[in-house]
Design brief:
Blueprint (H helix, E strand, L loop, with lengths): L4 H32 L6 H26 L2 H27 L2 H14 L2 H11 L25 E4 L3 E4 L5 H27 L3
Antiparallel strand pairs: 1-2
Helix pairs in contact: 1-2, 1-6, 2-3, 3-6, 4-6
Length: 197
């Protein structure tokens, strides 16, 4: 029979188990989005990962507080959960509000700061070469396009002639997809956190 604190305790434990699952989903999706963009790593995605980690920790605190009926711990649990909601909601909105120009700036700065090995890896993954004239196609001579042809051919011993697309569009698209997915999932799960209130 459900009555008194027993019913509340069981529902609170079940809700916190759900929050553990939500935290793992947030961490996983944000980490995937961060890895998928390869070069452009955004702080917004890192904040979603941090929110997932904090949500995981606070969910464990909620399970312990509910099972022990520890009211002080439950009070701080509610306050911290509300703060996580505010941060997660704000960052999710920022991820969704990032426009193409901002994504291009993020991708360009990421490209400038990336090592040659990381740029080469991005060029191989996205079948592209260079980033809007930032580099001189120096490491594109072994990159293949989607059809399997070399992107760049050495002409006259030193000149490099390339027919592959620049990397700005594929990087920007990967970054945009990652921000959209992370923002959407973060926004959806931030509302599940506020339902508790």
């Amino acid at each position: 029979m459900c009555g008194g604190f027993t019913c509340s305790k069981n529902s609170l434990i079940a809700l916190n188990v759900l929050y553990v699952v939500v935290a793992i989903i947030l961490i996983s999706v944000a980490a995937y989005a961060k890895l998928a963009s390869i070069v452009a790593s955004t702080a917004l995605v890192s904040v979603i990962i941090a929110c997932g980690v904090f949500l995981l920790l606070i969910s464990i605190v909620g399970i312990v507080a509910a099972s022990k009926h520890h009211q002080v711990l439950l009070f701080f649990y509610m306050i911290i959960l509300f703060l996580i909601f505010i941060i997660q909601f704000s960052v999710a909105c920022a991820c969704l509000a990032t426009n193409e120009n901002q994504q291009n700036i993020i991708a360009r700065e990421g490209w400038k700061m990336a090592s040659h090995e990381l740029k080469h890896k991005a060029e191989m993954v996205f079948h592209c070469c260079d980033y809007e004239g930032v580099d001189d196609n120096e490491n594109c001579t072994d990159i293949y396009d989607i059809s399997g042809n070399l992107c760049c051919n050495i002409v006259n011993g030193t000149d490099v002639e390339c027919h592959c697309p620049k990397c700005n569009l594929p990087l920007q698209e990967a970054l945009g997809r990652g921000l959209s997915v992370v923002g959407g999932i973060g926004l959806f799960f931030s509302f599940t956190e506020v339902i508790k209130y």
